[in-house]
Amino acid sequence: MEPTKTTFHGEAESDYKGRSWMAPPSGMSSVLSLSPTIQEKMDDHKCFVPKKCVHRYTGHNKGVQRIRLFPKTGHLLLSAGLDGKCKVWSVGGVGQRKVMRTYEGHKAAVRDVQFNHDGTRFVSASFDRFLRLWDTESGKVLQTFGNKKVPYCVEFYPKDDNYFVVGCSDNKIVTYDATTGEITQEYNHHLAPINAILFVDDDNGATKMVSSSDDKKILVWEWDIGVPIKYISDPTMHSMPSLAMHPSQQFFVGQSLDNNLVCFQVGQKFKLSKKKKFSGHQVAGYACEPAFSPDGRFLMSGDGKGRIFFWDWKMQKTLQKYKAHDSGPAIACVWHPLEPSVAFTCGWDGVIKMWQ
């Protein structure tokens, strides 16, 4: 096991008022605690396609595989590097955009990272076959998990942060109890490694889990029941290395290796919408992770040539494309939850870019 260490890069871990370096900027926390009507208005805030790159975050020694914004506020950005490190960056105004903390504890590339629902912790999944649960603020490792398999993707169970699921190289999904480190459930019906997992609430408020695998199937599961309730497989379907949920929770898209983003309906049916697809980008061979704007009007994705694309969700037409990353793919992207035209991309050139 690799010894873990963490480095804080900011001026001080708390300010003169004793507030943590992780605290959102003062105006932001008040926005979030306001009555739901304002929150609902913000949910309806119109997004716009970003126009240019406004900042480059550099500091990883190799490519950056995944990026995640801090839940609800998006004032911090978590990155997973192929150099085995995770980093948290500040997203603030000009002059404040810098690395805040580095988390070192893997001896191989980090494949996926995920915050819990309030951002106080995150899980990193690495090719060294271990998962680590970190305290975001202090950088301490709270727990280490592993079942001798490579973890490909990780997601927290939305209703209880003490559980998270991991899609593994041995075709299984396992649920870990974060407090005990025990595996509490196995989902074993895929025939190839698991690429992506999504959670969705159905019409009755019950949580379902959707998984995709190299076996070219999408399976739908009830939480904590190890038998799928639905197989989506279609002769036209290709392998889908990543999935993204539409903010309406009515649809999700899969990044299909035939260079299309394909769409699935959620709900009673769970089926492929054959008419709806997004194309123009070239992703064959890469697990490029797409993202939606918070208002659901736009879909964005990187591609294997380092470009990023923006599509209109309703019309399915390409609105914009930019050259974003050199030497290799633009592997992942995220859209800011509150700023209507701010998005981030990362690539195997080791750079994270902020677009506005």
TrEMBL record:
Biased composition (Basic and acidic residues): 8-18
Region feature Disordered, mapped onto this chain: 1-21
Cellular component GO terms, alphabetical: catalytic step 2 spliceosome
GO biological process: mRNA splicing, via spliceosome
Listed name of the protein: Pre-mRNA-processing factor 17
WD repeats: 57-91, 103-144, 291-321
Places the protein is found: Nucleus
Organism domain of life: Eukaryota
Pfam families on file: WD40
PANTHER family documented for this protein: PRE-MRNA-PROCESSING FACTOR 17
UniProt-listed SUPFAM superfamilies: WD40 repeat-like
Keywords linked to the UniProt accession: mRNA processing, mRNA splicing, Nucleus, Repeat, Spliceosome, WD repeat
InterPro entries in alphabetical order: PRPF17, WD40/YVTN_repeat-like_dom_sf, WD40_repeat_dom_sf, WD40_rpt
Species of origin: Fragilariopsis cylindrus CCMP1102
One example GO MF annotation: mRNA binding
